[in-house]
Amino acid sequence: MVRQGLATYFELQDDFEVVGEAADGRQAVEMTRTLAPDVVLMDLMMPGLDGLSALRELKGTGAKVIMLTSFLDLEKAMACIEEGALGFLTKDIEPADLVDAIRAVHRGEPRLHPEVMKRLMVRTAQPHQPSKRDLLTPRELDVLRALAHGLTNREIAERLVISETTVKTHISSILSKLQLTDRTQAALWAVREGLVDD
Known about the structure:
The protein is an alpha/beta fold. It is built from ten helices and four strands; from the N terminus they run ααβαβαβαβααααα.
């Protein structure tokens, strides 16, 4: 009933032509491949093949896809966008707004539910890049500072009250974590990071 109601409403638009209606996901994929529509309006929840799976199978057909759903699931929305959907809207949208969204998607402009847009903006924002310093333990930082001050393994061991073997283990771990090859590089890195005074 919903599908038929939408089709009837779309036919009233001068610039719309409904070229086909599908009852399930599998039929939607087959009809899209056969009829080559410009835009596919597809339910997220369908019998047989769900909307996300159908969307994946529509890659390469050239059709621009708008996903329509009764309940907003942000994770599924993001998955649909990652799979190429240009639209993700809920069924409580006003018919006129849905028509506008279809026109926009036809032009290649995405139309997303506001909550989906918020999630997308957060996800695509520049992620926090953790400092390599965060990879080091407090004791490794102590060893690195001492190393950068030019202390030998024995002197580091005496200052930190640990064995020389433990110092060597810490240094190996530091070099590995920072992807450095020798003590000199480690010392220079420590100075650049402000771990020691000039």
